Amino acid sequence: MEASTGMLPGGYWDSAGVLHREFELAVLTGREEELLVQTRRAESASLVSTVLSRAVRRLGTISPVTEEVAGQLLVADRQYLLLKLRQCTFGEVVRADMFCPWAECGKRMSLEFGIDDVPVEEAAERAPCHTLTLSRRAIAEDDTVLREVTFRLPNGADQEAVSPLLSSNEAEALTALLVRTVQRIGLLSSPRPEDVAALLPLARAEIEAAMERLAPRIELNIETACSECGRAFLVPFDVQRFFFGELRTDSELLYRQVHYLAYHYHWAEAEIMGMPRSKRQRYVELLAEEIERLNDDD
Predict the structure, then answer these.
(1) How far, CA to CA in Å, does 74 sit from each of 9, 17, 152, 248?
(2) What is the tens place of the pLDDT at every residue in 96-147?
Protein backbone atom coordinates (compact mmCIF):
# COMPACT_ATOMS: atom_id res chain seq x y z
CA MET A 1 0.00 0.00 0.00
CA GLU A 2 1.59 3.29 -1.09
CA ALA A 3 -1.08 5.84 -0.14
CA SER A 4 -4.45 6.07 1.53
CA THR A 5 -7.34 8.47 1.85
CA GLY A 6 -9.92 8.77 4.57
CA MET A 7 -11.79 11.01 6.97
CA LEU A 8 -10.43 12.25 10.28
CA PRO A 9 -12.59 11.30 13.28
CA GLY A 10 -12.45 14.93 14.40
CA GLY A 11 -11.22 17.46 11.87
CA TYR A 12 -9.22 20.66 11.51
CA TRP A 13 -10.88 24.07 11.69
CA ASP A 14 -9.02 26.74 9.71
CA SER A 15 -8.96 30.45 10.55
CA ALA A 16 -12.02 31.05 8.33
CA GLY A 17 -14.08 28.56 10.33
CA VAL A 18 -14.02 25.83 7.65
CA LEU A 19 -13.81 22.21 8.81
CA HIS A 20 -11.32 19.95 6.96
CA ARG A 21 -11.67 16.19 7.52
CA GLU A 22 -10.71 14.40 4.29
CA PHE A 23 -7.03 13.49 4.10
CA GLU A 24 -4.64 12.02 1.58
CA LEU A 25 -1.73 10.21 3.19
CA ALA A 26 1.44 9.20 1.35
CA VAL A 27 3.61 6.33 2.56
CA LEU A 28 7.01 7.26 3.98
CA THR A 29 9.99 7.13 1.65
CA GLY A 30 13.55 6.29 2.59
CA ARG A 31 14.22 9.98 3.20
CA GLU A 32 11.61 10.18 5.98
CA GLU A 33 12.79 6.87 7.44
CA GLU A 34 16.34 8.24 7.57
CA LEU A 35 15.07 11.42 9.23
CA LEU A 36 13.56 9.34 12.02
CA VAL A 37 16.72 7.29 12.41
CA GLN A 38 19.01 10.30 12.62
CA THR A 39 16.86 12.62 14.71
CA ARG A 40 17.85 13.11 18.32
CA ARG A 41 14.31 13.88 19.36
CA ALA A 42 12.40 11.26 21.31
CA GLU A 43 8.98 10.11 20.17
CA SER A 44 7.67 13.59 20.96
CA ALA A 45 4.66 15.54 19.79
CA SER A 46 6.95 17.79 17.72
CA LEU A 47 8.38 14.75 15.91
CA VAL A 48 4.84 13.59 15.11
CA SER A 49 4.14 17.02 13.59
CA THR A 50 7.28 16.77 11.47
CA VAL A 51 6.39 13.30 10.19
CA LEU A 52 2.76 14.18 9.46
CA SER A 53 3.76 17.33 7.58
CA ARG A 54 5.84 15.12 5.27
CA ALA A 55 3.30 12.31 4.92
CA VAL A 56 -0.05 14.12 4.69
CA ARG A 57 -0.32 15.35 1.10
CA ARG A 58 -3.65 17.06 1.59
CA LEU A 59 -6.09 17.88 4.36
CA GLY A 60 -9.39 18.96 2.88
CA THR A 61 -8.39 21.82 0.58
CA ILE A 62 -5.15 22.47 2.47
CA SER A 63 -1.97 21.49 0.65
CA PRO A 64 0.80 21.37 1.60
CA VAL A 65 0.17 20.54 5.25
CA THR A 66 2.74 22.42 7.30
CA GLU A 67 4.15 21.44 10.68
CA GLU A 68 2.06 24.23 12.20
CA VAL A 69 -1.16 22.74 10.80
CA ALA A 70 -0.09 19.23 11.85
CA GLY A 71 0.53 20.56 15.35
CA GLN A 72 -2.99 22.03 15.51
CA LEU A 73 -4.68 18.72 14.71
CA LEU A 74 -6.64 17.13 17.54
CA VAL A 75 -4.78 14.50 19.56
CA ALA A 76 -6.99 11.62 18.34
CA ASP A 77 -6.71 12.79 14.72
CA ARG A 78 -2.92 12.64 14.98
CA GLN A 79 -3.12 9.14 16.48
CA TYR A 80 -5.45 8.08 13.68
CA LEU A 81 -3.08 9.40 11.00
CA LEU A 82 -0.15 7.58 12.64
CA LEU A 83 -2.18 4.36 12.63
CA LYS A 84 -2.90 4.78 8.92
CA LEU A 85 0.72 5.70 8.22
CA ARG A 86 1.88 2.60 10.06
CA GLN A 87 -0.58 0.57 7.98
CA CYS A 88 0.79 2.06 4.73
CA THR A 89 4.39 1.45 5.80
CA PHE A 90 4.36 -1.97 7.49
CA GLY A 91 0.98 -3.43 6.63
CA GLU A 92 -2.26 -4.18 8.44
CA VAL A 93 -1.05 -6.62 11.10
CA VAL A 94 0.73 -5.52 14.30
CA ARG A 95 2.77 -8.15 16.14
CA ALA A 96 4.53 -7.71 19.45
CA ASP A 97 6.14 -9.96 22.07
CA MET A 98 5.49 -9.45 25.77
CA PHE A 99 5.26 -11.22 29.10
CA CYS A 100 2.02 -12.15 30.80
CA PRO A 101 1.42 -9.48 33.52
CA TRP A 102 -0.05 -12.00 35.97
CA ALA A 103 2.56 -12.78 38.62
CA GLU A 104 1.49 -16.43 38.81
CA CYS A 105 2.30 -16.82 35.09
CA GLY A 106 4.78 -14.33 33.65
CA LYS A 107 5.28 -16.42 30.51
CA ARG A 108 6.41 -14.92 27.22
CA MET A 109 3.58 -14.48 24.73
CA SER A 110 2.76 -12.80 21.43
CA LEU A 111 0.13 -10.18 20.63
CA GLU A 112 -1.33 -9.80 17.17
CA PHE A 113 -4.09 -7.50 15.93
CA GLY A 114 -5.11 -5.55 12.82
CA ILE A 115 -4.95 -1.78 12.44
CA ASP A 116 -8.53 -1.74 11.13
CA ASP A 117 -9.65 -3.56 14.29
CA VAL A 118 -8.66 -0.61 16.53
CA PRO A 119 -11.93 1.07 17.64
CA VAL A 120 -12.32 4.68 16.50
CA GLU A 121 -14.99 6.99 17.95
CA GLU A 122 -15.79 10.13 15.98
CA ALA A 123 -16.21 13.49 17.69
CA ALA A 124 -19.51 13.76 19.57
CA GLU A 125 -19.92 17.33 18.38
CA ARG A 126 -17.81 19.18 15.83
CA ALA A 127 -17.12 22.86 16.50
CA PRO A 128 -14.03 25.08 16.77
CA CYS A 129 -14.96 25.80 20.39
CA HIS A 130 -17.41 24.40 22.93
CA THR A 131 -19.28 26.08 25.77
CA LEU A 132 -19.93 24.39 29.11
CA THR A 133 -22.13 25.57 31.97
CA LEU A 134 -20.39 24.62 35.19
CA SER A 135 -22.37 23.16 38.06
CA ARG A 136 -23.13 25.47 40.99
CA ARG A 137 -20.85 23.40 43.20
CA ALA A 138 -17.96 24.09 40.81
CA ILE A 139 -17.99 27.87 41.34
CA ALA A 140 -17.67 30.18 44.32
CA GLU A 141 -20.93 31.66 45.62
CA ASP A 142 -20.06 35.16 44.43
CA ASP A 143 -18.89 34.01 40.96
CA THR A 144 -22.19 32.94 39.39
CA VAL A 145 -21.37 35.17 36.41
CA LEU A 146 -18.44 32.83 35.65
CA ARG A 147 -20.50 29.66 35.20
CA GLU A 148 -20.08 29.53 31.43
CA VAL A 149 -16.71 28.40 30.11
CA THR A 150 -15.74 28.25 26.43
CA PHE A 151 -12.85 26.01 25.42
CA ARG A 152 -11.29 24.27 22.42
CA LEU A 153 -10.15 20.66 22.37
CA PRO A 154 -6.45 19.87 23.00
CA ASN A 155 -4.15 19.45 20.00
CA GLY A 156 -0.62 18.32 19.27
CA ALA A 157 0.94 21.68 20.11
CA ASP A 158 -0.72 21.52 23.53
CA GLN A 159 0.71 18.04 24.03
CA GLU A 160 4.19 19.31 23.25
CA ALA A 161 3.82 22.26 25.61
CA VAL A 162 2.58 20.35 28.67
CA SER A 163 4.36 16.99 28.27
CA PRO A 164 7.48 18.06 30.27
CA LEU A 165 5.19 18.70 33.26
CA LEU A 166 3.29 15.41 33.19
CA SER A 167 5.95 13.29 34.86
CA SER A 168 6.69 15.79 37.64
CA ASN A 169 3.40 17.56 38.39
CA GLU A 170 0.17 16.36 36.79
CA ALA A 171 -1.92 19.12 38.40
CA GLU A 172 0.41 21.77 37.00
CA ALA A 173 0.22 20.12 33.58
CA LEU A 174 -3.59 20.26 33.68
CA THR A 175 -3.46 23.94 34.63
CA ALA A 176 -1.08 24.62 31.72
CA LEU A 177 -3.42 22.74 29.37
CA LEU A 178 -6.46 24.72 30.52
CA VAL A 179 -4.55 28.00 30.18
CA ARG A 180 -3.92 27.11 26.54
CA THR A 181 -7.41 25.79 25.71
CA VAL A 182 -9.88 27.86 27.72
CA GLN A 183 -11.04 30.77 25.56
CA ARG A 184 -13.59 32.42 27.84
CA ILE A 185 -14.68 32.32 31.47
CA GLY A 186 -17.99 34.10 31.97
CA LEU A 187 -17.50 37.65 30.71
CA LEU A 188 -13.71 37.25 30.51
CA SER A 189 -13.19 36.76 26.77
CA SER A 190 -9.41 36.46 27.09
CA PRO A 191 -8.80 34.93 30.52
CA ARG A 192 -5.35 35.36 31.99
CA PRO A 193 -3.39 32.37 33.32
CA GLU A 194 -4.21 33.46 36.86
CA ASP A 195 -7.93 33.49 36.00
CA VAL A 196 -7.73 29.89 34.82
CA ALA A 197 -5.57 28.87 37.78
CA ALA A 198 -8.21 30.32 40.11
CA LEU A 199 -10.87 27.85 38.91
CA LEU A 200 -11.98 25.44 41.63
CA PRO A 201 -10.76 21.82 41.33
CA LEU A 202 -14.32 20.66 40.56
CA ALA A 203 -14.58 23.22 37.75
CA ARG A 204 -11.36 21.94 36.24
CA ALA A 205 -12.61 18.36 36.52
CA GLU A 206 -15.88 19.27 34.77
CA ILE A 207 -14.02 21.00 31.92
CA GLU A 208 -11.67 18.04 31.55
CA ALA A 209 -14.63 15.61 31.50
CA ALA A 210 -16.37 17.70 28.83
CA MET A 211 -13.23 17.70 26.69
CA GLU A 212 -13.01 13.91 26.95
CA ARG A 213 -16.70 13.50 26.09
CA LEU A 214 -16.61 15.80 23.05
CA ALA A 215 -13.27 14.77 21.55
CA PRO A 216 -12.82 11.93 19.05
CA ARG A 217 -11.22 8.87 20.59
CA ILE A 218 -8.93 6.06 19.47
CA GLU A 219 -9.12 3.00 21.75
CA LEU A 220 -5.48 2.06 22.21
CA ASN A 221 -5.98 -0.43 25.02
CA ILE A 222 -6.00 -3.79 23.26
CA GLU A 223 -7.88 -6.69 24.84
CA THR A 224 -5.97 -9.97 24.76
CA ALA A 225 -5.48 -13.16 26.74
CA CYS A 226 -2.38 -15.08 27.75
CA SER A 227 -1.88 -18.17 25.60
CA GLU A 228 -0.38 -19.98 28.60
CA CYS A 229 -2.71 -19.25 31.54
CA GLY A 230 -5.73 -17.99 29.58
CA ARG A 231 -6.23 -14.88 31.70
CA ALA A 232 -7.48 -11.75 29.96
CA PHE A 233 -5.90 -8.32 30.31
CA LEU A 234 -5.53 -4.98 28.53
CA VAL A 235 -2.35 -3.98 26.70
CA PRO A 236 -1.75 -0.24 26.17
CA PHE A 237 -0.70 0.36 22.55
CA ASP A 238 1.40 3.52 22.27
CA VAL A 239 1.15 3.90 18.49
CA GLN A 240 3.59 6.81 18.47
CA ARG A 241 6.37 5.00 20.32
CA PHE A 242 5.69 1.65 18.62
CA PHE A 243 5.71 3.02 15.06
CA PHE A 244 8.86 5.09 15.51
CA GLY A 245 10.49 2.13 17.27
CA GLU A 246 9.74 -0.13 14.29
CA LEU A 247 11.33 2.37 11.91
CA ARG A 248 14.45 2.76 14.01
CA THR A 249 14.81 -0.99 14.51
CA ASP A 250 14.87 -1.40 10.73
CA SER A 251 17.39 1.41 10.13
CA GLU A 252 20.15 -1.03 9.18
CA LEU A 253 17.79 -2.67 6.66
CA LEU A 254 17.26 0.70 4.94
CA TYR A 255 20.96 1.19 4.25
CA ARG A 256 21.43 -2.43 3.21
CA GLN A 257 18.60 -2.10 0.67
CA VAL A 258 20.11 1.11 -0.72
CA HIS A 259 23.52 -0.54 -1.04
CA TYR A 260 22.08 -3.71 -2.61
CA LEU A 261 20.01 -1.88 -5.24
CA ALA A 262 22.70 0.69 -6.02
CA TYR A 263 25.33 -2.04 -6.42
CA HIS A 264 23.29 -4.17 -8.82
CA TYR A 265 21.13 -1.63 -10.66
CA HIS A 266 23.58 1.29 -10.51
CA TRP A 267 20.79 3.59 -9.34
CA ALA A 268 21.65 6.79 -7.53
CA GLU A 269 21.12 6.90 -3.78
CA ALA A 270 18.59 9.73 -4.18
CA GLU A 271 16.45 7.57 -6.49
CA ILE A 272 16.37 4.66 -4.06
CA MET A 273 15.78 6.84 -1.00
CA GLY A 274 12.81 8.37 -2.79
CA MET A 275 11.08 4.98 -2.91
CA PRO A 276 8.67 3.73 -0.24
CA ARG A 277 9.66 0.67 1.74
CA SER A 278 7.31 -1.69 -0.14
CA LYS A 279 8.77 -0.72 -3.52
CA ARG A 280 12.37 -1.10 -2.34
CA GLN A 281 11.52 -4.50 -0.89
CA ARG A 282 9.86 -5.63 -4.11
CA TYR A 283 12.95 -4.74 -6.18
CA VAL A 284 15.18 -6.52 -3.65
CA GLU A 285 13.02 -9.65 -3.94
CA LEU A 286 13.01 -9.56 -7.75
CA LEU A 287 16.76 -9.08 -7.84
CA ALA A 288 17.32 -11.93 -5.37
CA GLU A 289 15.11 -14.21 -7.49
CA GLU A 290 17.05 -13.29 -10.64
CA ILE A 291 20.42 -13.90 -8.97
CA GLU A 292 19.19 -17.26 -7.69
CA ARG A 293 17.96 -18.20 -11.19
CA LEU A 294 21.29 -17.29 -12.77
CA ASN A 295 23.16 -19.32 -10.15
CA ASP A 296 20.92 -22.32 -10.82
CA ASP A 297 21.59 -22.03 -14.57
CA ASP A 298 25.30 -22.19 -13.89
Answers:
(1) 9, 15, 10, 26
(2) 888 888 888 988 888 888 999 999 999 989 999 999 999 988 887 666 566 8
Residue boundaries of the structural domains of the chain: 3-122+218-247, 130-215, 250-297
Contacts of 217-221 spanning 24+ positions with Cβ under 8 A: 217/9, 217/76, 217/120, 217/121, 218/9, 218/76, 218/79, 218/80, 218/83, 218/118, 218/119, 218/120, 218/121, 219/118, 219/119, 219/120, 219/121, 220/79, 220/118
Residue range 171-218, pLDDT digits in tens: 888 889 999 999 999 888 888 889 898 888 899 999 999 999 999 999
Residue positions counted in the chain: 298
Q: Where are the alpha helices (DSSP H) in 91-169?
A: 156-166
Paired sense of beta strands 148-151 and 130-133, if any: antiparallel
Whether the predicted pLDDT of 7 surpasses 80: yes
Which residues, in sequence order, are bridge partners of residue 121?
Answer: 217
- Burial of 294 from C-beta contacts in 10 A (0-12 / 13-18 / 19+): exposed
**What CA–CA distance (Å, rounded) separates 220 from 214?**
18
Long-range CB pairs of 231-238 (<8 Å, 24+ gap) are 231/100, 231/102, 231/105, 233/100, 233/101, 233/102, 235/98, 235/111, 237/94, 237/118
